[in-house]
Amino acid sequence: MNDNPVPANSARLSIMVIDDEPIVCKRLQSAFLKAGYRVEAFTDSAAALARLMDEPFDAIVTDLKMEGTDGIQVLTDAKRRHPQIQVVVITGFATMETAKESFHQGAFDFVAKPFKLSDILDCIKRIENRIRPAGQEGRAQPSTV
Amino acid sequence: MQWRPWNRFRREGHPADETLATVWRIQALFNNFRRILEQNNAAIEQMAAMEQALGGAYIFDRAFLEASVHRLSTLVHHVVYNLNALTDNTHVALYERCEQIGRTLRQILAGKPETDQPEVCIPLGAVDWDLEPEVGLAVVCLAEIRRRSEIGVAEGFTVTRTGCLALIRPDLQWPPEALRERLDAAVADLVRKTGTDRLSVSLVSIDALSPSRLPGATCTPADLADTLERLLHRIPADRASIEPAAQPAAALVQAAAALETGEVATMAGDAAGLEVLMVTAHTPETPDAIDRYFLRRAQPFDIVASEIAAKPDDKSLPEGQRPTAAGVFGLLRGSAFLTPGAMKSLARAALVLERLLGEPCLVDWQRTSDGTIVVTGLRSMVPPDPAERKTDLAAALASARICGQGGQTVQSGVAAGTVVHVDERSDPAAFPLGAIAVARSASPRLAPLLQRAGALITEIGTATGHLGIVAREMRVPSVFAQPGALDRLAPGSMVTVDAAAATVYEGILDGLLQSGASGGELFPTDPEYRILRRLLRLILPLNLVDPRAADFTPRGCRSWHDILHYCHEQAVHELTHLQERRPGLAGLRTHRLRTGVPLEIRILDIGQGIAAQAGSEAGVSDLRCQPLAAFLKGLNAPRAWSRDPAALSLKDIASGGPPPAAGGNLAIVTRDYFNLSLQTGYHFSVIDAYQSPDPQRSHIYFRYAGGFADVRRRTRRAGLIHDVLALLDFTVTQKQDLVVGRLKPTDTHSFETVMGVLGALTAFTRQRDTVMTRDADRQILLKRFTEAFLPPAATEGTQ
What we know:
The structure holds two protein chains of two kinds.
Chain A: E1 14-18, H1 22-34, E2 38-42, H2 45-54, E3 59-63, H3 71-81, E4 86-91, H4 96-104, E5 109-112, E6 115-116, H5 117-131, E7 143-144
Parallel strand pairs in A: 1-2, 1-3, 3-4, 4-5
Helix pairs in contact in A: 2-3
Chain B: H1 3-12, H2 15-54, E1 58-59, H3 62-86, H4 93-109, E2 121-123, H5 132-135, H6 137-148, E3 152-153, E4 156-159, H7 161-168, H8 176-194, E5 199-205, E6 216-219, H9 224-233, E7 249-255, E8 260-265, E9 270-271, E10 274-281, E11 291-296, E12 303-307, H10 340-357, E13 361-367, E14 373-380, H11 386-399, E15 401-405, E16 408-411, E17 414-422, E18 436-441, E19 455-460, H12 466-474, E20 478-480, H13 485-488, E21 494-498, E22 503-506, H14 510-516, H15 527-539, H16 560-576, H17 578-581, E23 591-594, E24 601-607, E25 617-619, H18 626-635, H19 650-656, E26 666-670, E27 673-680, E28 683-690, E29 699-706, H20 711-727, E30 731-735, E31 738-743, H21 748-764, H22 776-789, H23 792-795
Parallel strand pairs in B: 3-14, 17-18, 18-19, 19-20, 23-25, 24-26
Antiparallel strand pairs in B: 2-4, 4-7, 5-6, 5-7, 8-10, 8-13, 9-10, 10-11, 11-12, 13-14, 15-22, 16-20, 17-21, 21-22, 23-24, 26-27, 27-28, 28-29, 29-31, 30-31
Helix pairs in contact in B: 1-2, 2-3, 2-15, 2-16, 3-4, 3-16, 4-15, 6-10, 11-14, 18-21, 20-22
């Protein structure tokens, strides 16, 4: 899945997508690329955590329920290594408990599947605004006729 | 628990308690009805979410598909249970239909074939999306374009996965003689249609398309089975499987006769700085002398560049031309195999295939001996360096000018072309192929335009309406409810539509066009898409639309939507006959309603239909039942009541006889429902109306019969009622003096307007039969009534 490694020190927001369902990785990777972000996608959460050793991403979008290392472990491990990293948890098994647990571990947001593309893009936009306040993101806005 | 008191009362036999128990029983029946509506609503919402997911509106995973089917299964079962509780188990056969459909859905989720006895040969004209697991995506796409494009598909048939498997492995269902018999019949049919003596046989992949061709060959009709068997044995061993579901290929058999042949590559990189597609052409005899034409990917598909191969001067070209002949303006036309019109038609057909397939593709075509150009095959292709282009896209979009934004994504995708404003009167045949249709509302009557439109934008409409369903079926990028689209998108302007982002950009954005076809959306090549599409085939279609049809039965239900609709109709039918089946209801403790007109109506309140403090006599102001209040407003209209005495003849008196047994005028009411049984003199009518917060679930039922006058006059009055109901958009039938009308109002306002008109109609037609002595009276009275009581919109075109 990771066929487009993120170059280090790029000015664009870097996002890691982790979901054991290839369709989710594929669609999110494609949508984030189209929006101008740098993206790497992983269907194997252990491989994703190994990649985090090399590259501190700006944001992680991770599934919660995965074989092996689950989303909460990804969240806690990523936060421990890179406290500034922003993590969005996505899940098809959303409960109040899992949401609470995610926020308790420092998640930026918690999104239940299925979700609209615009919802996750809005979420990433808020992360971008937090990391790079207005005027620093370097991405022009489209003009309206 | 609620039945325990009733049973006790029954045992003890107290008349007053029996009355109370009867009220409880009616309440229980109505609660069944209400639950049917609530569960129906929830199921429809779930179905809509699944359908929108297919259009690309949501990111979802397999768990969503499994959870959706599970939830729908539960809801549909509950609806069936409540209908049977409402009707004393009259519809138990529905449980079996539920289980059959549910079992097939579970098979689809498990990746198994839907049917136990698949066919082995299917003509292309009979292939649809249901057959995709048996014939492969490419064949389904070819069959679809055969129905909708000006470019045809070569006549032929497909040998299904089951047929291919039976050819190379003994099969109990399809022994060799039965299999050969089917193949011979299909070949004979193809030879009869085309007159061909050579067949082209090509294997097609079932599960995924690839840029490379699977084995193919030409053969005589008599050699087809042997040739096909040889080809199947050439599939690499690691792809073949003993599992039927894993058999990797089907076969496409077509007539082999081509003057020229070639390909269309829908994504061919840049030419003159513009994103283009490429059409190639050559003769079968000179495969190395290839024409190449480069066309823009946006309507009107301008030709950007061409490379023309040298040809002998005696080569016959389309339209009787020769390679060095002068064209219509006296210019030498060169030696192209294809005319510009043919190139553009091929371009459009290839882009429709790309949209159906969901990724860039290679389309094979050929020109047959009669000069017709037909598509013969479809493969996927690898687009040029997609990652680099996508990175550039963000900057291109940031600097692009937006000329339309907002609304609801109905089907994601990207298209560019000329804006054309359309409405329900637009001629589909005159719509420019591939142009961008912009309309005021998403009327179902626009559906034929989708055959030719590159994209569709409307100012009004919902993704779950009929047009939305058709747009998703055809995968036409569509956005509904975009504010001000008609004003902002001027006719003739060039735009690019990104439906997933509900955004329209000024001009043609080549980078976006390329992106839309190379990733970012949900495509038919994605397994989840194909599973969802197969699931929806058994969930969404509404086949049972006419309650009077012979197949409006549990056995006739082919989808869960059919079952839900059947249950809803039967539940309404049960309620509308509630009073007839329970004649003792009028004797219950009721309120007498002061109506202000010479009509006594008694009210039986089964759920907040009347103010708690109302006494045995209630005024209109005590009513909490909104549908009945709206009806009474019309009933009380002074102009609706005729002051003329009834004109009776001896024949009327002879035919009228004594008044029917008086059942009284009883309204069973809740806050949002009433069932009114009216007997005014010699006619009998029933009005059953439910006003749901969701207008889709509201209904109005109106039945009218009888009268005092002779049958001809009663029939004239029934005709008048029929005409009024028809103007109100009721589905209405009339048989002599019996009129039955059904309506699903579109919103609260129209519901209350219609109820008022029905009230006025009830008063206006009272005893009218006696004065309708001529056929012309029907029209005269209709005009008088419509001018007084119908909203202007209902009478447009009737004067």
